[in-house]
Design a protein that fits this description.
Blueprint: H1 9-35, E1 43-46, E2 49-52, H2 53-101, H3 117-166, H4 172-200, E3 207-210, H5 211-229, E4 231-237, E5 241-244, H6 246-262, E6 269-277, E7 281-288, H7 295-298, H8 322-332, E8 336-341, E9 347-354
Parallel strand pairs: 4-6
Antiparallel strand pairs: 1-2, 3-5, 6-7, 7-9, 8-9
């Protein structure tokens, strides 16, 4: 925004301080003038002589003017120095803001000293820079991973088309089938990216939602997949009212349940799906059997395109965005996502969302 040039804050503070100091000095002088000098007799004997009142008033006015000039000079000089010291933290904050505007997010202000308004602003600004730096790094890493993931099916499609063009006797049915598989995966990846972007922008309508009903719907949808893999689904829980996007929360539940089914023990796995109400939150818990996971591995599973070691041996490749979408949807609903490895193998995933006010 273009603005016309004006006085600096330091100069304004200096003038204000000097003006206040001069005013503070003028008030007692005016009081002396009104309540003392104005009541002197016209002629007053002093040390045997005669002092004319007008002479006394003249001398008093001259002395008062000199005092006010001194106060003005002290006020300007002292005000300039004090304003500079007081505004020094603001200057550092301004410099840091300018650096951040130019793209440098690694700089921190870190004002020393005890807590006050400037240092509180500095700490908040440093925290904001830290979060921005992390967010930008995540976005760059996500863009690089997404480009790589999208490049793979396109490269495969190109290779298949080149084979079909250079080898007319090659079975076209096989090429078409492989192209269909590759394109389906590419479409799934793009749809997942769009869903991730929509949830991250919080561009959705909020309505009353019961997580227990979404859990039942997700179970019915994925029951054929569970039966195919020999996985048993056990559901339990109470009515869990919250507010949010029904479509996104259903996608969250489906992703969690599908993840628990696919990354499980083949032929003998179990998934536990539970919903419950706490004083201030509603909780959705999905727990499954499976291979033992380390806390270090579990902490990375919500990052886009991150796949655990157990995923390499499955015939369900996925797009690597399932838990990333769950995390984004949870945060978009002001919730909390917790992943904990089970000692017996598998993982426990808990989603906590705000409970409806009427049920507090």
């Amino acid at each position: 925004m273009d603005r016309a040039p004006g006085l600096s804050v330091r100069l304004k503070f200096t003038l204000s301080y000097a003006g206040f100091l001069v005013l503070a000095g003028a008030l007692p002088l005016a009081a002396a003038w009104i309540f003392i000098l104005r009541h002197l007799p016209k002629y007053t004997g002093v040390d045997g002589g005669v002092l004319i009142r007008s002479t006394l008033l003249h001398d008093f006015a001259s002395a008062s003017a000199a005092v006010l000039v001194v106060l003005l000079m002290v006020g300007l000089g002292g005000g300039w120095v004090l304003a500079g010291r007081m505004l020094a933290p603001l200057t550092r904050i301004t410099d840091a803001t300018r650096m951040a505007t130019n793209g440098s997010l690694s700089h921190r202000i870190r004002l020393p000293g005890r807590k006050d308004e400037f240092r509180e602003l500095s700490d908040v600004f440093d925290g904001m820079l830290e979060r921005l730096e992390v967010h930008v790094a995540e976005q760059r890493r996500f863009a690089a991973n997404a480009s790589h993931e999208l490049r793979t099916p396109l490269a495969i499609s190109k290779a298949l088309l080149d084979v079909a063009r250079t080898d007319p006797e090659h079975c076209t049915g096989e090429v078409i089938e492989r192209l269909h598989t590759v394109n389906t995966r590419a479409i799934d990846l793009i749809e997942a990216l769009l869903l991730l972007s929509r949830a991250d922008q919080r561009s959705f309508t909020r309505e009353h939602v019961d997580l227990s009903l979404l859990a039942e719907e997700a179970t019915e949808t994925l029951l054929p997949l569970a039966e195919k893999r020999g996985v048993t689904i056990e559901t339990s829980g109470d009515i869990t009212p919250t507010i949010g996007s029904q479509a996104l929360l259903l996608q969250l539940t489906v992703n969690l349940l599908q993840n628990a089914i696919v990354h499980n023990l083949p032929g003998q796995g179990t998934v536990w799906l539970n919903t419950r109400v706490c004083p201030k939150t509603v909780v959705l818990t999905v727990e499954n059997t499976g291979e033992k996971l380390t806390p270090q591995l579990v902490s990375t599973l919500t990052e886009p395109f991150q796949r655990g070691t157990e995923r390499i041996h499955t015939d369900y490749a996925g797009v690597g965005l399932g838990l990333a979408i769950v995390k984004t949807i949870t945060e978009a609903h002001d919730g909390k996502l917790t992943l904990t490895p089970r000692s017996a193998g598998g993982i426990r995933i808990t989603v906590e969302l705000p409970v409806v006010a009427a049920h507090l």
